[in-house]
Design brief:
By secondary structure, the protein is an alpha+beta fold. The chain has a single domain (2-107), classed as GTP Cyclohydrolase I, domain 2. Helix content is 36%, strand content 31%. Strands 1-2-3-4 form a 4-stranded antiparallel sheet. Helix 3 (45-56) packs antiparallel against helix 4 (63-77). The two termini are 19 Å apart.
Length: 108
């Protein structure tokens, strides 16, 4: 998932913003959906996307904080998700040199 958001320690980052990528892996029981072929019997990833988008719209200073908020919000909204691995990346971070991205991997 790609978002334009306002996370960062520098004041300019919270005013100008930049691009972020979020990847999420989660565990849930899919046995019923495997048989029924019905999205109502599993986790609707469009709804997961909406929760992540909502959290990305709230500025944070560090990736770890926004990542933990995302994990908590997803688990709160989808009780059938048991484990989450989340990777959040800031593209072109202001580190004083050329860098494609910086990433944090969180589990919850």
């Amino acid at each position: 998932m790609k978002f334009y958001a306002y996370h960062g320690c520098f004041e300019e980052e919270q005013v100008i913003g930049t691009d972020f990528c979020v990847s999420i892996w989660f565990e849930t029981d899919t046995q019923k959906a495997e048989i029924t072929d019905n999205v109502l019997d599993t986790v609707d990833y469009s709804q997961v996307y909406a929760v992540i988008k909502q959290q990305m719209a709230i500025p944070s200073h560090i990736l770890e904080h926004v990542g933990r908020r995302i994990i908590n919000a997803v688990k709160e909204n989808f009780k059938n998700i048991t484990d989450i691995t989340l990777k959040i990346s800031k593209l072109n971070p202001p580190v004083g040199g050329q860098m494609d991205k910086v990433s944090v991997l969180l589990k919850g």
